[in-house]
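Researcher: Good morning. I'm working through a list of sequences from a screen, and I'd like to move beyond sequence-only analysis. For each chain I'm collecting a predicted structure so we can compare shapes side by side. This is the next one on the list. No need for commentary yet; just the structure.
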Amino acid sequence: MPMMKICICDDDLNQCKNLKDMILAHGSHMVTVYHSAEELLFECENNYAFDCIFLDIQMKELNGIDCARKIREIDSKVILVFLSAIKDYVFEGYEVNAMRYLLKPLQENKCHELLDMIQNSIEKESAYVLINKTKINCDDITYIESYGHYCGIHTDETIESKISISDLLKELPDTFIQTHRSYIVNLEHVESILKDKCVLDTQELIPISRNSIKKVNESFMEFIKGGIY
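Model: Good morning. Structure tokens for this chain:
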């Protein structure tokens, strides 16, 4: 089951714990907890790098609805789910394009049904990778180059991140293949395979090591035949 990055924002500590336990019972998800809307907005610094944010509506100071409005000023795509003991805020939920409400007291089966729905929704969208707290669409990545303890992620610009090439490869979909100990290419952007190089649609040449040439050729052939999605 794919791991999701999930945020919980609720000033009730017991509710936070209960919801986190339900989420982790569903799968090995990464769960971040905030105990106020102000904390969430401050810590995220306008980068809501989550698949889903669970927002309690009745929080002190800034409530969940107003927090959702501020999130939507920056991010129109992150999935929002409201937590509430009452249904009175349904129209405000439509206003900020919330996916659904979870009514308190929380029920694990309802939570898991919703998490299944969220996963299905995410899988229909383009995959992304989280680099320096920013979501990068994997389709936009042409290749990745490793140098020292850093990787350069090449899109229409180069983004540097302190991460090993092996750890980064684990985060990427199957359209990415390592051609060399220092290079990963996105097969979506490969035009042809030469003896020891990949030719990208940008006309850049990416080296292929002797040990990798067979695997790269096989992966490229499988890709162009439609075997990788």
